Amino acid sequence: MKKPRIMIAATASGSGKTTITCGLLTALKQRGLKPCSFKCGPDYIDPMYHRNVLGIESGNLDTFFTEDEVTRWIYGKEYTGDISVIEGVMGLFDGVRGVEEIGSSYDLARALNCPIILVVNSKGAGKSVVATLKGFIDYDKHKLIKGVILNKTSKSFGQILKPIIEQELGVKYLGSLSDISDINISSRHLGLYLPEEITDIKSQLSLLCKKVEEEIDVDAILEFANGACEDIGKAKAPKQLDTLMNSMQSVNTIKLAVARDEAFCFYYKENLELFESIGIKLCFFSPIKDFHLPTGISGILLGGGYPENHLKELSINNQIKNEIRLAYENGMPIMAECGGFMYLMDEIVDSDNTAYKMVSAINGKATFTGHLVRFGYAIIDDGERKIKGHEFHYYDTDNNGSDCKATKPSSTRSWQCIHKANGGFVGFPHLYYLSNLDFIKNFVEAMKNYGGY
């Protein structure tokens, strides 16, 4: 099957690629097409926009997490509809440590043989934009950059730059977004605000779509996307991965309780679908609103998110806190990442130095630091196997665990992390399961051995 695709990338973070991606996806839907989307890199919030607000299927792709063959399989498996729009991360060539190609938007475009539309924040610049673009195009050894969008440039000045860009650089000028100050998509410390937190976001996206249709050459973008019709995705997982997945299959129904609400919402689609693909039933619950864990469960998954914004509600729900603590003490395997890990501790101390009682399954407290802690990719080693993940948090704890060692890729910097208990892993790192299924197999086997709750 042909899989038309396009990547929206940028010269740097903050250039407007998320805004343009959302506007383009909305425009494609309004044209009667069925787009799907992917986010490059370890990002939870942008895919939530695409799924929850736009109603578009969205997943994560990352060439640091997975090798080319697995990356292409994930892409092919999750591709739906008529066209995929892939949103880049940071600057086009910014990968591991900011200097390596692996993990970059460009490396993903290479792996998928995907044409790139480059977004440039050209506010306050004139012909200097052309020099910037020339550097990016000269650096593009696979000749994937096909078109350019200038953000924060007037339509009239964009038309002046158009012939210079097209004649001197050999790429198509696709238009400019002149002024979107009336469209309020704000930022916060972990990225963009969650979709449900923005007032009247759908009407704002409608305005954005109108501007994209008026100021951007969407027809040309579609032409580039349709030119990338090579079917690179495979229906079946690569052999080694397929063998591991088959070995994890369960004859009996196993239920996994998954915390999902305003406080716990950071999950890779690929991680959840992996559990479902091997026969595990996901039972979603809210540590804020629900008083009981789902019945018949054999494990608990507590993802990251924003528990710090819901500390009062979490702290007063003693019933479910007690059930989670007793489940942990009775040997139930639990996977908890970042915010989920903090929730399992004795208390969380917020930025005002107010302490809130949490589950008390793990001794210690989490405290707001006011700065990013151990930010970025990490390779986590439990002494037998390694898995890839990342950290992104402003809180730290006095008991991060010492059962695994996390190491920065291409670096000697390392730190102890994670509590291993009952076959589960509890700590700050967000894990990408498909980077090493053998690491997750231990948790699945522990659930099989546990039995019903």
TrEMBL record:
Keywords: ATP-binding, Glutamine amidotransferase, Ligase, Magnesium, Nucleotide-binding. The keyword NADP does not apply. Residues 256-404 form the CobB/CobQ-like glutamine amidotransferase domain. Gene3D superfamilies: 3.40.50.880, P-loop containing nucleotide triphosphate hydrolases (3.40.50.300). The keyword Zinc-finger does not apply. Residues 6-184 form the CobQ/CobB/MinD/ParA nucleotide binding domain. Pfam families: CbiA, GATase_3. GO terms for molecular function: ATP binding; cobyrinic acid a,c-diamide synthase activity. Its cofactor is Mg(2+). This is Cobyrinate a,c-diamide synthase. It comes from Pseudobutyrivibrio ruminis.
